[in-house]
Write a structure and sequence with these properties.
The chain is built from 14 helices and 102 strands. It has 1463 residues and is mostly beta strands. The strands form 25 sheets. Strands 47, 48, 49, 51, 52 and 53 form a six-stranded antiparallel β-sheet that branches. The chain is extended.
Length: 1463
Amino acid sequence: MSGSIPFYQKNHRHYDRGYRSKEMESAVSQYQASSSSYAARSSSTSRGLRVSSYSGLEESRLSPIPKRSKPTYLAVDRENQIIGYVVPIFRGSQEFASGLSDTEEARMKESAGHMARRNLFTSGLEMERTEQSSRKTAMRESAERISLSKRIHENEEYHKRMNEDSLMHTPEFVIKPRSHTVWEKQCVRLHCTVSGWPDPRVVWYKNNVTIDPLAQPGKYKLVSSYNVHSLEINRCDFDDTAQYRASAMNSKGELSAFASVVVKRFKGEVDEALPSPRYGIVSEYGITFQTHIVEKFDVAFGREGETLSLGCTVIIYPNLQRYQPEVQWYRDDVLLSPSKWTHMHWSGDRATMTLTHLNKEDEGLYTLRITTKSGYETHSAYVFVRDADAEVEGAPGAPLDVRCQDANKDYVIVTWKQPAVDRGSSIMGYFVDRCEVGTTHWSQCNDTPIKFARFPVTGLVEGRSYTFRVRAVNKSGMSRPSRASEPVAAMDPGDRARMRGTSAPWTGQIIVTEEEPAEGVVPGVPAELEVTEATKNYVVLSWKPPGERGHEGVMYYVEKCVSGTDSWQRVNTEIPVKSPRFALFDLAEGKSYSFRVRCCNSAGVGEPSNPTEPTTVGDKLDIPAPPGRVVPIRNTDTSVVVSWEASREAKELVGYYIEASIVGSNVWEPCNNKPVKATRFICHGLVTGETYVFKVKAVNAAGLSESSQESEPIEVKAAIATPAPPYGISVLECVRDAMVLAWKQPAFIGGADITGYFVDYRQVVEGVVGKWHEANIKSVTDRAYRVSDLKENMKYQFQVRAANMAGVGIPSLSSETFTCAEWTIAVPGPPHDLQAMEVRSTSLVLLWKPPVYQGRDEVNGFYIDIKEAEAPLEAWRGVNEKATDKKYMKIKILKEGETYVFRVRAQNKAGVGKASEPTEPVLAQTKPGTKDIVVDVDDDGVISMNFECANLTPDSKFVWSKNYEEITDETRITMETKGNKSKATFKTPAEDDLGIYSCLVTHTDGASSSYTLSAEELKKLLEISHDHKFPIIPLKTELAVELLEKGKVRFWLQAEKISANGKVEYVFNDNVVSQGEKYKMNFDKNTGVIEMTMESLTPADEGTFTFQLQDGKATNQSSLVLIGDVFKQLQKESEFQRKEWFRKQGPHFVEYLRYEVTPECCVVLKCKVGNIKKETVALWYKDGREIKADEHLTFSEGVLTLEIAQISKKDAGIYEVILKDDRGKDSSTLNLTDQGFKNMMNEVFSVIANSSTALKIQSTEEGIRLYSFVSYYNDELHVTWHHKDAAIAFTDRIKCGVVGEQLWLQISDPTDKDKGKYAIEFFDGKGGLRRTVELSGQAFDDAYAEFQRLKAAAIAERNRARVAGGLPDVVTIQEGKALNLTCNISGDPLPEVTWLKNDREMVSDDHYILKFESGKFASFTISTVNTADSGKYSILVKNKYGTESGDFTVSVFMPDDVGGKKK
């Protein structure tokens, strides 16, 4: 194992054993001997270190360490590498842990001590003799061990039976596992001691996932012995950084203990690498996962405050839902966890991480790691975060990485990193703000800016938590605040550690708890007191606790003394501190102090420690020196690798800032906004083709160093490297002593053109290869070469190397074994050097070179084959049925998104030869940014072809070809390239120039295009060229004529474009006319409008008008012929317009009188007038009689209206409106008689029809009624009812009518013949409007049933028994009088009559005489009324159709009552 440890680990103090004392080495040796002996006895199959619970108890007997000192127990492996530690069991729990009696325990201790002393002091010879002991001795020792184990087991069972219930208790961690920090590839072991009864079962977890040693053989090892449990992690890698948990469980309960393992990587040797995969092949399932990361995120740039998302698409095959990969994100090799700043998402096939609010702390190298059980895949890219715009112009960038250190109960030391951007003004200092957790109020901690990037914040309230932020300030103003720090509690570090309940990380030292602390002991003297940090604001002291400190914890008093005096002053007079670290404030700057510490507890205050050396208060940290020589190296076309020499003797270096500037600009921009600690950095985001210089600054807490010297200028373009190996070596021809080879160009040419190739060959004799020999000393530029001086019938292998300006690349793989034998076949050999150009979604152009071996006759044609890339060999199919004699072909049968391969076969008279090697797979897809050749004809008539490439690289060149052969003769065509555009110009285009012209851009992903110049295309271009040489002024409009107001005639045209030098001649009947009384000319050169106006037309103006234009050498003309009827019509219209103009000088009608029908079926006569004033009068007339103004006549906003409501025939007539005032008058007439009135009424009828509702069905007691409502009904409205598309002949049974706005059709006593489709048709003089309803099926049945019900109800209502009247509500009568009431009764059949008194039926007698006469009259008579007759009376009539009652009340009073009332 030691041989595999890197050099940096061998020199690390954790792994160097030279610092051990003799006592330590003795203890380690003794421990090794006793542990190995016990391991050999306990198990022959166990491997590694096995530790018993008593292995360290004899330490005090064998080691010269004093009794009260702390023994150290180190665990080492077979090669003496420290892999852990062993903690002894306290004396108080020994018997319980071992289960042995005192005598047996002493015997076991003595036996263990004897074996340890024997192994420790025995020489090599004695060890050899021990190994050769007799079989008898070995058997005796074995018997003793068996006997001892049996006695131990019996003793344990005895104690369990004696008091089993009292022993049962929940698991308890006597010693908890401790956290460790180790180097990569080292082993680590976590230990814990657990008590409990029944014996607890211990399970280990990693990040809450159970650890299964069988799932990863050799990675984890679990050991349990005498309640001591250990987890060994072999060869730790980066993924082993996690939280581990030991869970102890028995029937009484469960308890867990936690420990963290941090795996460090040495940055000097491995900078950006990530750990190796944790899993091998999933052997238990036989599945190997293949992981591919596609659609990867690239280098990203963001700004503070923005949101940035990174994402990759992940393809895992096979895709098993139950096996999901582990997705992890890293920044600068530090594992990231979800937080409010970072959101992570895994959708099953895409991993994304969103930085919700960018800060400069987020800058760094981000890595996505996808881990499966078969391995892992990673992708990394850098994220740069720029400063946000300053709130104050010129203010510096915000500080970053604010952290809290040395947090105590009343102070916190805040540190940060300086920003890279000061915006031209140096930073004067920093302000620190604090905010109590749970509030939003920030308070400033320092009154004046501090330059040191470290500041103690005092005045905190113990027990409260705070966050901090920092702002930078320069003469321009204050920066934005930094990102707030993580919350920190103001409390003693000792209290904080106890609250956390976790152990401190591994520091290289092993601290063992006292075995039996004494009580009431005054603590000893603190050790190793030193000043760890000193500035002008504070001093930090640290020390180690004393060896003797009593049973309870210790606290400390700190004292100070001015150098040169002996006056010691206690600093913390009120409360001693609990932590072995303390910060002192309020020291006088420039003075020297010494410090010492005393320990105290309840037993008293101990002696002071040795004082420190005198320390002068002030900033001891200096600004670092400038970095050394800066060297830039080309990387990509947008990035440069910058390396530099580290700052010399720099203390507490934070990192470096790199700046870049375009040569000559003198403007420096930061390349990174977060300091980098390495001396090499890749600067991204540079402009391709620009030349930059770089400089570097070093940073520590004291500030930024001066800038380094500027680097040498460097142009940003891709770095040049040697090309990759060629491939696809094949034989094109073979003769007795020579072979012609061909090969394919390397996939990567190294960023520069390939200058040539070198070919090597070697013999192969009976499978044994010989030495390589050079076939050519001078490089060849073609991808085909004839290798001569070979031996006939011998076998050879070949390899090819490509060369460019960077050098010669590595050779290709050896070719197949070829036999040098002359070809005698009649058909030609294979074509070679196939190339695919102009790749589009449905087409491409394939080029090839003819075969070297022609066969018996010359090659007379070629066949092209195609197949899908993944298809089998049987899928090859031909593209062309007829052989082509060209060495190129455009293939147009591709499907977008499909990948194809091609091959070519040559033929001669003897037949078709062997096929060429297939091309590389070609994806049929038009790449983004692809452009085609554009043909242009300039103003001088010059014809050119233009091609533009967006993905140009610095080494790219435009190569023009005709019929796919490079144009080298420029007698007929010239080529010119500027930037990313190239132009090929024809000198004198003619038939000799016909052909296919193509342009290829080198050092791109195949940017190319072609243009076919055919005879028709050439003719078209020559015509355009002629037009450009002899130009014509283009016209937007030809010469036209229009009439203006007052009847003026305007002749005009408009040219598309004309310069200020343009001229126009106006010609009438071949005579030039000029400006004068008759003709007015105008030429607006800005708009190109040319016009000529005439006041009026006379018969002499009949003829042809022409405008002749000239602008430089461009000319044009346009004519207009005005003769015959055309001229007469124009003249007539001109005169009319002239008269109209005069009419409109006074009050006039803008819109003449017309009518409108409103939705309410009112007719409104309206006209629009203009040029009116207050004195203007409007008079309405009908049939010559003036209409008096009333509420129906309005005149507003120039519109006159007359409303006619409920129009009828009496409203027919001729309506006229007259406008007049002192300027004149105008009139408008509307004829609403005969046809005019009919047309108006038809519009009214149309409005009525459109307002009608849908036909509805209603049942009545007579039958079924169909009806529709209209918004207004006019007596003139003509309506027709239809049944089954035939007009209905109305009878007594079927009638129609109108009730209000309801139009109805009544069908009395309907029958089945009445079923069918009914319609009502409104006549409006046009198409009319029809509303229909279907009265059949369920609709008829429902309506008929309702009719029967209503009919029966009507009959019942007419014939039911009724009390018609005649009965009063109340009858008041004097006692002794006679009462007679009569009422009318109706009903059919004759009702039954019943009288009731107080709801009881009455019977006619002498007192109550009840009669029902003639079936109509019912009488009620009381012959002599007495007081007993008072009450409620009712008459009840009833027949089969219903019952009705009439009620009345009789009140009888005494005659005395009346007299009393009178009184």
